[in-house]
Amino acid sequence: MARRKIYQVGDDTLRQVSKPVTEFDDKLSMLIDDMIDTLIYADGAGLAAPQIGVLKRIFVATFDGGRTIIEAVNPTIVQAKGKRVAPEGCLSIPNIREKVERPRRVVVHAFDRHGNPIELIGNGFDASCFCHEIDHLDGILFTDKSINGRK
Ligand code: NI
Fold it and tell me: Counting Cβ atoms within 10 Å, is residue 50 exposed (0-12), middle (13-18) or buried (19+)?
């Protein structure tokens, strides 16, 4: 496992659309381990692969009050309910926190590193986090959606 450099806002990599993972091999497993290392070291809530310069549809995130770390490969939001506005930050945009409106609850379908289908249910903070990370896979940053200053 190894820590990776976190790409910062202004880098064009963060604006690209990531490609689905097709090979569930040792290389993927090593990449996900590196992402988890990088997330823990940076003390973040979530990290998407493009943030370490890899344009693949993968994110890792803390879950359930930080008690566990989840990994999601090729995630899709299959259900979203309610609305919630809360401040967000991002490891790629240091020292900025802005309010973003997200669903209050989301159901995400994805795969684990072995290619097994998984279902993640996010409420509140976890819902915002999953949406934030999935946005990264489409080149979207939370500041694009900020409602700070909007009446
Ligand atoms: Ni982020």
Answer: buried
Cα–ligand 1 centroid distance for 19 (angstroms): 18
Output the CA 8–ligand 1 centroid distance in Å. Answer: 10
What residues are labeled active site?
A: 133
Domains by residue range for the chain, with CATH: 12-145 (3.90.45.10)
**Cα 132 to middle of ligand 1, angstroms:** 6
88-100: pLDDT as tens digits: 999 999 999 999 9
Of the candidates 58, 77, 78, 79, the residue with the CA atom closest to the CA atom of residue 69: 58
> What per-residue confidence (pLDDT) applies to 150?
54
The whole-number average pLDDT for the span 43-68 is 96
Cα→Cα distances 72→6, 21, 28, 35, 140, Å:
19, 11, 12, 11, 18
Average pLDDT, integer, range 24-51? 97
